[in-house]
Write a structure and sequence with these properties.
Largest sheet: 8 strands, antiparallel
Number of strands: 14
Number of domains: 2
Order of helices and strands: EEHEEEEEEEEEEEHE
Distance between the termini: 28 Å
Strand content: 35-45%
């Protein structure tokens, strides 16, 4: 893995502000995350709540028919009373409405847009591997954000017996250098698709893991931070899609 300067892609055209984004290179020098980014961008959108400053997040096109395009996004941004705007990869934007909601995820319906692309879901087991997310840089631009699956299952035992807690096998953990939040303190990446290096969705991000185990003095002062935090790496939880 190498690091290099990368620019956020502005969905209204042109380049956005600079960012640092590690890339995985093949023998011929092609940056795999950049190739995947270009392939999957038509399936990713930005969702904005109109009339509220900085209320925006990521979304993905999960279905289209002759009349409508359907977008998976997070429910904390797209509440039922909000006026919502969906911005596609090429800058085209149109209004959307919530048609389904469960927990922190929801589905939006907007008019059919022929230039968008439906995500392809991976069928198989997720392993420790390089992955990629498309992360909001602003309400009009996105980052190519490489990451790594560090735990392929979040299964755990009860504290008082050997029984495995139900549901943990449906989630995995990954790390990436992205921690931006909306004013409501929700991660902008919740509901974001996690792509493998073939451009298939292996999971949907459902939240952040807040790290609370730094050693502290008796007055609460942190003695030293974890090396992950020092380098700006964040832990994410994602839900398996297969």
């Amino acid at each position: 893995m190498v690091s290099g300067n990368d620019r956020a892609t502005d969905l209204d055209g042109g380049e956005a502000e600079e960012g640092i984004s590690p890339g995985i290179k093949t023998r011929d020098g092609i940056c795999i995350p950049s190739r995947v980014f270009n392939d999957v961008c038509p399936s990713v959108v930005l969702v904005e709540q109109i009339g509220r400053i900085d209320y925006y997040c990521i979304g993905s096109v999960i279905l289209s028919d002759d009349k409508n395009t359907f977008v998976l996004t997070q429910s904390k941004i797209a509440d039922s009373t909000a006026k919502l705007l969906v911005r596609f990869y090429d800058g085209f934007k149109q209004s959307a409405t919530v048609i389904f909601r469960k927990d922190n995820l929801c589905i939006l319906m907007t008019d059919f847009y022929s230039k968008s692309k439906t995500v392809e879901f991976f069928k198989g087991l997720v392993d420790h591997s390089h992955v990629i997310a498309i992360a909001p840089a602003s309400k009009t631009s996105v980052h190519n954000m490489p990451g790594f699956v560090t735990q392929k299952s979040l299964e755990a035992c009860h504290s008082d017996n050997d029984n495995v807690l139900e549901g943990g096998e449906n989630f995995f953990m990954l790390t990436m250098r992205y921690g931006d939040r909306s004013p409501n303190l929700e991660s902008r990446l919740i509901s974001g698709p996690v792509f493998n290096l073939d451009g298939q969705v292996v999971g949907i991000i459902t939240g952040d893991i807040e790290y609370k185990f730094w050693p502290r003095r008796t007055n609460g002062e942190i003695i030293h931070q974890d090396i992950f935090v020092f380098y700006g790496v964040f832990f994410k939880v994602a839900m398996h899609v297969s």
